[in-house]
């Protein structure tokens, strides 16, 4: 199943770009502004494979897996400075608000849709299992952020985010040579929230910042399965409640008369999740915990005031454990990402941005013991955005 952007989404992006780049707009020389608006679209594709399965310390060629997903997302953003951001005539347009130390309020809204397909095989001595799955996922989100300069060199940062998602999937499992089949459907609804609190300190033109995070998630999933030769379907429901806390540190360094910017960031998060599965025979409870760590860096070079090119690298890991009454390691995930972004200011108040990125992810399940499986995922993302200032 391949996701194709609907005509409605294309019209929405076209209207947004037309509003941000109206015909006949004159290119003034003054880049001062108080309101910034942007609209963008992203296209995402992911390929997942399982190149290695080890059983009892020996690699096995009896298992195969491949998954593909594709999707699009649309985003709108608005930033309002509490006082007008002035143009000094020399600073790159991207850095005017940063250099001017403007207090701002920012609102972001987004929509995303993804479709995925996967197939898997397991070959035994006397039988073979072939499975397939097709699913769709829709996500809506909104975020609000505030940066307020309490002192000329010290700012307070507050943020909040809400998200909702809905996912449906249909899977099919066939055993050969018997021909027995299992058909299953599932529907998942989830909601998320997060709140951040941070402080940033300027050291001349450089900046360091620290922040804390609290987040939560609630999800429910309903499964229904029908088996060949059985008149009664099997059903179960799952409810998961997650809580996350985390800390982060970041810095921005300016060099070469504001022509080079270096952004560095590091974060740590811990998530605890309680899961309850309700079946016809009773209820099953489980606990899990995930530890996430990441480091990232982005270097930006400004060729004059109107053109900026950025290259970023990030490295992240996640260690997961589950079980009752004691936790046991269940998965280890490692991800490396590279991004390239170019932003061009057609005028002091109008800009276009193009970005492309790739993420390589490897997971081991479970990470310890003589038996495990390794999954490798490659995710590509291309995004286009337009920016206007007023």
Rg estimate, integer Å? 25 Å
Distance between the termini: 42 Å
Order of helices and strands: HEEEHEEEEEEEEEEEE
CATH class: Mainly Beta
Main β-sheet description: 14 strands, antiparallel, barrel
Describe this structure in words.
- With 390 residues, the protein is mainly β.
- It has one domain (7-23, 31-389): Porin.
- Helices cover 5% and strands 75% of the residues.
- It is built from two helices and 15 strands.
- The protein has helices at 7-20, 96-99; strands at residues 33-55, 58-59, 63-85, 104-123, 128-151, 154-176, 181-203, 206-227, 234-255, 260-279, 282-302, 307-322, 328-347, 350-365, 372-389.
- A 14-stranded antiparallel β-barrel has the order 1-3-4-5-6-7-8-9-10-11-12-13-14-15.
- A hairpin with a 2-residue loop joins strand 10 and strand 11 (282-302).
- The two termini are 42 Å apart.
Secondary structure: elements and pairs:
Layout: H1 7-20, E1 33-55, E2 58-59, E3 63-85, H2 96-99, E4 104-123, E5 128-151, E6 154-176, E7 181-203, E8 206-227, E9 234-255, E10 260-279, E11 282-302, E12 307-322, E13 328-347, E14 350-365, E15 372-389
Antiparallel strand pairs: 1-2, 1-3, 1-15, 3-4, 4-5, 5-6, 6-7, 7-8, 8-9, 9-10, 10-11, 11-12, 12-13, 13-14, 14-15
Quick structural summary:
The protein has 390 residues and is mostly beta strands. The chain has helices at residues 7-20, 96-99, and strands spanning 33-55, 58-59, 63-85, 104-123, 128-151, 154-176, 181-203, 206-227, 234-255, 260-279, 282-302, 307-322, 328-347, 350-365, 372-389.
């Amino acid at each position: 199943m391949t996701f194709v952007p609907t005509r409605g989404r294309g019209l929405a992006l076209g209207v947004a770009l037309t509003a941000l780049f109206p015909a006949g707009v004159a290119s003034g020389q003054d880049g001062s502004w108080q309101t910034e608006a942007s609209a963008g679209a992203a296209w995402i594709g992911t390929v997942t494979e399982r190149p290695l399965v080890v059983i009892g310390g020996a690699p096995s060629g009896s298992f195969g897996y491949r998954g593909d997903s594709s999707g699009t997302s649309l985003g709108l953003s608005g930033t309002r400075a509490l006082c007008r951001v002035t143009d000094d005539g020399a600073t790159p347009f991207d850095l005017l608000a940063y250099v001017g130390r403007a207090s701002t309020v920012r609102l972001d809204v987004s929509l995303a849709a993804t479709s995925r397909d996967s197939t898997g095989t397991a070959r035994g001595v006397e039988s073979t299992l072939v499975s397939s799955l097709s699913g769709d996922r829709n996500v809506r989100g909104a975020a609000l952020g505030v940066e307020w300069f309490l002192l000329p060199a010290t700012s307070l940062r507050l943020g909040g985010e809400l998200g909702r998602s809905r996912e449906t999937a249909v899977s099919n499992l066939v055993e050969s040579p018997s021909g027995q089949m299992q058909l299953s459907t599932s529907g998942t609804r989830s909601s998320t929230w997060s709140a951040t609190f941070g402080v940033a300190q300027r050291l001349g033109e450089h900046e360091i910042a620290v922040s804390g995070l609290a987040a939560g998630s609630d999800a429910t999933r309903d499964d229904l399965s029908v088996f060949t030769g059985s008149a009664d379907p099997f059903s179960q429901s799952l409810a998961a409640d997650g809580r996350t806390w985390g800390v982060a540190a970041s810095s921005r360094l300016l060099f070469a008369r504001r022509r080079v910017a270096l952004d560095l960031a590091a974060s740590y998060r811990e998530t605890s999740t309680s899961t309850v599965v309700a079946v016809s025979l009773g209820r099953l409870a489980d606990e899990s915990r995930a530890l996430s760590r990441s480091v990232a860096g982005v270097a930006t070079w400004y060729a004059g005031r109107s053109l900026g090119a950025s290259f970023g690298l990030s490295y992240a890991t996640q260690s997961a454990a589950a079980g009752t009454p004691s936790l046991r390691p269940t998965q280890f995930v490692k991800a490396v990402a590279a991004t390239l972004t170019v932003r061009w200011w057609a005028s002091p108040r109008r800009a276009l941005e193009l970005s492309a990125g790739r993420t390589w992810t490897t997971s081991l399940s479970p990470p310890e013991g003589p038996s495990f499986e390794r999954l490798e995922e490659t995710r590509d993302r291309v995004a286009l955005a337009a920016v206007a200032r007023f």
